[in-house]
């Protein structure tokens, strides 16, 4: 036979038919397996199967950061400095995500697209150009829209159906009838209809001279977009798509480029066409063409879904050898896939996964700042029969929440419940403590409320103490006081004695004297002894006599406390030399206190000491005066 693709055609017609031709040998395909000996990429051996999982997406925070950088007019050097300082990697997926975020800011989108075109042109695919085209069209930048269409035509890119419909709607609403007609004219042509006819001919017939004649008779002008459209239409029949692909070039009707090779690779990148796929991408590399990021991502996802990890790893190696290199996240993703296989082998030999192993994984991920990946690793371990112990659950909950991974922490807690295990209080406490350490106090409070809803308030006192401590550590003792009062009144929560003491100390330290008095009253209501030491210490240093009276009234259910408490308050004032405030406090005390013998003796002794101190000071002043006078007289005598 004259063309290699005809062997594939005859194989489709009958697997049992023996071809009678001098160039054909029985049981030998003319399309070699994987790569030839002269290929620029190594042979791909048989694949192994592991678990499936979608390809990792780029962190949304990076996309937001890039969008923010390009939202402000900045020169090229400043842009490079900002991107380098934030360690931002511009990938194909990142370009699409940033353009999506800048959809309503055409100036920023234009700056970003121009910068990528100048610095990373290999990252721009047909999909990227369509995204920029959508931004221009939906924002009414008509002149630039048509300029972009012309640029895309030169590159062999077409306008996607989704972009066409979106922009058409905007043009129609804006009354731009001429542009509406022009845009529709791009699609209302025979090429689109011919694509459908070609697909129908190839799908519904066994390839042969008659099929070739029918396609030729259509007089289709095969462009890159037309060929890609036909290949996409034949995606469910990859063998026929490959026959069409090979015949088209060997018949001289079209010279394949990078776009059509990638379209064919996307069709063949599946389990039942794996040898043809590797042969095609080898030919593509040898022709000096590159695999597009879009092709890599799509085929990699398909390989992983079908558990073809061996092929996925070799696809990654192939892409890394080219211009459009995969992201770091793809490497991490594949490493995890390999690890999953190791776990299955380990447990398949009768070994059990332990908490210490999971703890080692946790430490490793924490050391490289990737705690958010822990859930995925745990899932692989759980699929192999691992169940985390209570202490490890708490440790994981803390690490996730303390690292600011709120969604991952929530997912972890939900998965424990879904597995049928009960969340113990230690795990809840670790979760809340972690949220507090990360500064997510609202999330910590939400977690506590969730725990109360599920387990009730009766046993929540210790966990509540953790919550209150988190608020106090962030200097939000007043907010903690409000939460405590609300839960005590609405949920009948009974805080621990230590929680009350904690709040009193922190409120006084953070200027919440009035709130501390409220806490003092709640302590009394719950039967705890009055906690007066920090109040006396605080008032003696910076409180007024009026504040002291308020405290003395608040600490007891009676009108006033015992005389001993008054004496302690007065002594504290005197100790810090605040005689005036002590006197002011005494003047507002009830008569039985003002006339009490011990109180009178205390004030008299303090007055006596003060008077004695004043007398001693006066004598010292007189003595000093006489010494100065004598010295002055001696100087006068000597001078004479």
TrEMBL record:
InterPro entries: BIR6-like, PPR_rpt, TPR-like_helical_dom_sf. Keywords: Repeat. PPR repeats lie at residues 257-291, 424-458. PANTHER family: OS01G0970900 PROTEIN, SMALL RIBOSOMAL SUBUNIT PROTEIN MS81 (RPPR8). Pfam families: PPR (PF01535), PPR_2 (PF13041). Coiled coil: none annotated. This is Uncharacterized protein. GO terms for biological process: RNA splicing.
């Amino acid at each position: 036979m004259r063309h290699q693709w005809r062997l594939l055609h005859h194989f489709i017609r009958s697997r049992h038919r023996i071809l009678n031709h001098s160039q054909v040998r029985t049981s030998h395909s003319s399309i070699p397996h994987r790569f030839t000996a002269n290929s620029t990429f190594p042979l791909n051996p048989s694949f192994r199967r592991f678990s499936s999982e979608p390809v990792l997406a780029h962190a949304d925070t990076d996309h937001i950061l890039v969008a923010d950088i390009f939202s402000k007019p900045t020169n090229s050097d400043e842009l490079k400095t900002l991107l380098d300082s934030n360690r931002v990697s511009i990938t194909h997926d990142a370009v699409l995500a940033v353009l999506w975020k800048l959809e309503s800011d055409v100036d920023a989108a234009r700056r970003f697209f121009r910068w990528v075109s100048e610095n990373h042109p290999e990252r721009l695919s047909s999909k990227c150009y369509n995204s920029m085209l959508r931004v221009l069209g939906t924002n009414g930048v008509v002149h630039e829209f048509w300029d972009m269409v012309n640029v895309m035509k030169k590159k062999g890119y077409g306008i996607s159906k989704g972009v066409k419909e979106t922009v058409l709607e905007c043009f129609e609403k804006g009354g731009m009838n001429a542009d509406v007609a022009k845009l529709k004219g791009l699609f209302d042509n025979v090429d689109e209809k011919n694509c459908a006819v070609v697909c129908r001919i190839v799908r519904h017939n066994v390839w042969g001279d008659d099929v070739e004649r029918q396609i030729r008779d259509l007089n289709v002008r095969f462009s890159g977009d037309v060929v890609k459209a036909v290949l996409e239409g034949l995606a469910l029949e990859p063998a026929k798509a490959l026959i069409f692909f090979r015949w088209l070039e060997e018949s001289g009707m079209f010279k394949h480029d990078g776009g059509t090779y990638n379209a064919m690779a996307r069709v063949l990148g599946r389990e039942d066409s794996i040898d043809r796929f590797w042969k095609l991408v080898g030919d593509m590399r040898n022709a000096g063409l590159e695999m597009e990021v879009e092709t890599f991502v799509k085929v990699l996802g398909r390989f992983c879904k079908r558990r073809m990890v061996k092929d996925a790893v070799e696809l990654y190696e192939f892409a890394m050898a080219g211009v459009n290199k995969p992201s770091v996240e793809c490497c991490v993703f594949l490493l995890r896939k390999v690890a999953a296989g190791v776990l299955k082998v380990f447990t398949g030999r009768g070994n059990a996964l332990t908490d210490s192993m999971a703890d080692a994984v946790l430490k490793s991920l924490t050391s490289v700042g990737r705690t958010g990946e822990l859930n995925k690793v745990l899932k692989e371990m759980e699929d192999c029969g691992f169940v985390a112990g209570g202490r490890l659950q708490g440790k994981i909950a803390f690490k996730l929440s303390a690292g600011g991974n709120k969604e991952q922490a929530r997912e972890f807690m939900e998965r424990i419940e879904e597995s049928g295990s009960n969340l113990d209080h230690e795990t809840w406490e670790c979760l809340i403590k972690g949220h507090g350490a990360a500064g997510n106090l609202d999330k910590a409070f939400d977690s506590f409320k969730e725990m109360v809803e599920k387990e009730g308030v009766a046993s929540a006192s210790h966990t509540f103490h953790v919550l209150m401590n988190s608020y106090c550590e962030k200097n939000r003792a007043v907010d903690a006081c409000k939460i405590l009062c609300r839960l005590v009144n609405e949920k009948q929560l009974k805080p621990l004695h230590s929680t009350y003491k904690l709040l009193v100390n922190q409120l006084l330290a953070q200027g919440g004297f009035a709130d501390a008095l409220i806490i003092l009253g709640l302590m009394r209501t719950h039967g705890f002894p009055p906690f007066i030491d920090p109040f006396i210490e605080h008032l003696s240093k910076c409180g007024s006599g009026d504040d002291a009276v308020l405290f003395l009234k608040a600490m007891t259910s009676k009108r006033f406390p015992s005389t001993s408490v008054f004496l302690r308050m007065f002594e504290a004032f005197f100790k810090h030399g605040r005689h005036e405030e002590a006197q002011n406090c005494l003047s507002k005390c009830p008569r039985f206190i003002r006339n009490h013998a011990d109180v009178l003796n205390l004030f008299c002794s303090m007055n006596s000491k003060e008077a004695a101190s004043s007398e001693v000071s006066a004598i010292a002043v007189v003595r000093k005066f006489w010494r100065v006078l004598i010295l002055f007289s001696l100087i006068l005598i000597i001078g004479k």
